[in-house]
Amino acid sequence: SSNMAKSKFEYVRNFETDDTCLKNCYIVVRLDGRNFHRFTEQHKFTKPNDNRALGLMSRSAHSVMEELEDIVIAYGQSDEFSFVFKRTSTWFKRRASKLMTHVASQFSSSYVFYWKEFFGDQPLLYPPSFDGRVVLYPTNRNLKDYLSWRQADCHVNNLYNTVFWTLVQKGGLTTAQAEDRLKGTLAADKNEILFSEFEINYNNESALHRKGTTLIWEKRDETVTKRMKRPNEEEKEVSVTRSRKRVQAYHCDIIGEQFWEEHTDILED
Ligand code: ATP
Ligand code: ATP
Ligand code: MG
Ligand code: MG
Ligand code: MG
Ligand code: MG
C-alpha cells in the first residue's frame, strides 16, 4: 500500500540539512540578475541607465514586499535588489533556502509579469533569472554598513558609467578609447571631465541613478467616502479614515544618519 511505501522511503527526508538562520539577526537576501550584461544588450537598454528597467526592478521588489512576510526595507540598484527581513521574523521557521527561493521566484515572476507595463510592445526575448544569497547581520551597525556598501557601489559604478557613456555619446570616443581615458582616474578626475568638457555637474544627475532605490513601509491615513444608511435615516455619505501601510520609494542617501533618524521604525533595538 502507499502507507508502506511512505514508511519505507521516508528516511530520505533526513538527508535535508538544517539551514535555520541564527536568531536575532537581520536576514538579508540579495538578488542579482544573471548575465544582465547580455540581457541589457539584447533588450537594447539605454546606457548608462535605462529607466524602464529600473522601474521594472522596483515594481518587482514592491511585489516581493507585498507578497512575502516581514521585509522591513529593500535597496536596489543596477540589476540587484537586497531585501531585509526583520530580526524577529519566524517566517518559514527562518529557513534560509525557503526565504531565498521565495524572494527570488516572486521577484523573477514579477519581472516577467510586469514587463509590458514598462517596455510596452518591446518583446521579452527569453526568461530572465536572478541568483540569490542569504547573509545574516547581528547589529544595526552591521546592517546599515551593508546597505551603505551597496549604495557606495551604486555611486562608484554610476559615476564611472556616466563619464564613460558621456565620452562615447557626446565626446565621440569609441568604447575602447573611453575605457583607456578612464584608466587610473579617481572620482575627482571623473567629476572634472564631466564638468570641464561637458558642462555636467554630476551632483545634478538624477537621484534615482546616483542613489538607487530604497523601499520602506509607510503608514498613511487614507480617507474614503462610503454611503451609509442607518435605520430611520436618509442614506448619506460618510468619510472613513483608516491607517494603511504601503510601500514608499526613496532615492536618497542612506549612508548618513539622517535617513535612519527620520525613519526610526525600520530597525529594532
Ligand atoms: P552576473 O550573472 O555575474 O551577475 P552580469 O552580466 O549580470 O553577470 P553584473 O555585474 O550584475 O553582471 O552587471 C549588471 C550589468 O547590467 C551591468 O553591465 C549594468 O551596467 C547593466 N545594467 C543593469 N541595470 C541596467 C539599467 N537599468 N540600464 C542599463 N544597464 C543596466
Ligand atoms: P505550500 O505553500 O506549503 O507548498 P500548497 O498549498 O502549495 O502550500 P502543497 O502541499 O504544495 O501545498 O500542495 C499543492 C496543492 O496544489 C495540492 O492541493 C494539489 O492537489 C494542488 N495541485 C498541484 N498541482 C495540481 C494540478 N496539476 N492539478 C490539480 N491540483 C493540483
Ligand atoms: Mg555579479
Ligand atoms: Mg548580474
Ligand atoms: Mg549586478
Ligand atoms: Mg506547494
From TrEMBL:
The keyword Transferase applies. It is an enzyme of class 2 (transferase). Keywords: GTP-binding, Magnesium, Metal-binding, Nucleotide-binding, Nucleotidyltransferase, Signal, Transferase, tRNA processing. The keyword Magnesium applies. Residues 9-138 form the tRNAHis guanylyltransferase catalytic domain. It catalyses: a 5'-end ribonucleotide-tRNA(His) + GTP + ATP + H2O = a 5'-end phospho-guanosine-ribonucleotide-tRNA(His) + AMP + 2 diphosphate + H(+). One of its GO terms (molecular function) is magnesium ion binding. GO terms for biological process: tRNA modification. Residues 142-256 form the Thg1 C-terminal domain. Its cofactor is Mg(2+). Adds a GMP to the 5'-end of tRNA(His) after transcription and RNase P cleavage. This step is essential for proper recognition of the tRNA and for the fidelity of protein synthesis. Also functions as a guanyl-nucleotide exchange factor/GEF for the MFN1 and MFN2 mitofusins thereby regulating mitochondrial fusion. By regulating both mitochondrial dynamics and bioenergetic function, it contributes to cell survival following oxidative stress. Homotetramer. Interacts with MFN1 and MFN2; functions as a guanyl-nucleotide exchange factor/GEF for MFN2 and also probably MFN1. PANTHER family: TRNA(HIS) GUANYLYLTRANSFERASE-RELATED (PTHR12729). Belongs to the tRNA(His) guanylyltransferase family. This is tRNA(His) guanylyltransferase.
